[in-house]
Amino acid sequence: MNREVIVACDFRDREEAFSFLDRFTEEKPFVKIGMELFYSGGPAIVREIKARGHRIFLDLKLHDIPNTVYKSMLRLAELDVDMVNVHAAGTSEMMRAARRALDEKGSRALLLAVTQLTSTTEEVMQRELWIGHSMEDTVRHYAQNAAQAGCDGVVCSPLEAGLVKEACGSSFCTVTPGIRFESDEKGDQKRVTTPAMARRLGSDHIVIGRSITGAKDPVEAYRRAVREFKEGEQ
Ligand code: C5P
């Protein structure tokens, strides 16, 4: 898959999502459907967005006992999306259960594992989650677990894309949220970079939400992200 700019469609409902997507008359962005939109629109919204010709990353971050994840992933596989994900913190057994479900369904979806959320700092990870290692070592370890469990890649910060590739090989996919244009507010995100920097750091695909959805001209913001990330414009 070529480098992709994936737009996080974090909208409250179908109406908001389509009034955003309708602005794109020339391009069909790869879209990410997360919990908010999925919980309001359900599988129907996934089918509808897909029918309009968008590729889809269904970002539901499954994290439960292996049997529940296995059975849930069987259902998600039926939606025939391009990417799905789980939390690496759910254990290797859980990730293998997700892999098994996709394989049994003959799914072509890339299975990604979230390493550490890009809204988490190293300090909070150590103090609150009680993980007594550096962010880099933790992300590397979770990525290695994910690779061994049969995942196709991880969701991580662009700041960690290089170390993931080093540990898991260049074909192991890195999908990186935590992207902001130079002048944007970070919001709740902590481990952030620009699209141009994500390209330099070796991200395969970037995920951008508010810097596009909240822009005055979202289509222009999308095009700017594409120019920076895919074509290397500064
Ligand atoms: O608006 P913003 O660009 O911060 O949106 C980032 C998107 O990526 C959100 O939908 C968020 O749920 C998702 N995400 C993330 N960090 C992760 C995994 C997913 O920000 N590690």
Which spans of ≥5 residues are poorly predicted at pLDDT below 50?
none
Ligand set? cytidine-5'-monophosphate
Discrete helix count: 10
Number of strands: 8
Q: What is the CATH homology-level superfamily?
A: Aldolase class I
Estimate the mean pLDDT confidence: 97
Strand content: 15-25%
Determine the structural class based on helices, strands and strand pairing: alpha/beta
- Helix percentage: 40-55%
CATH architecture: Alpha-Beta Barrel
Strand order of the largest sheet: 1-2-3-4-5-6-7-8
The H-and-E topology, N to C, reads as: EHEHEHEHEHHEHEHEHH
Provide the CATH topology: TIM Barrel
- Give the C-level CATH assignment: Alpha Beta
Compute the CA-based radius of gyration: 17 Å
Our count of domains comes out at 1
The biggest beta sheet reads: 8 strands, parallel, barrel
Q: Note the overall shape.
A: globular
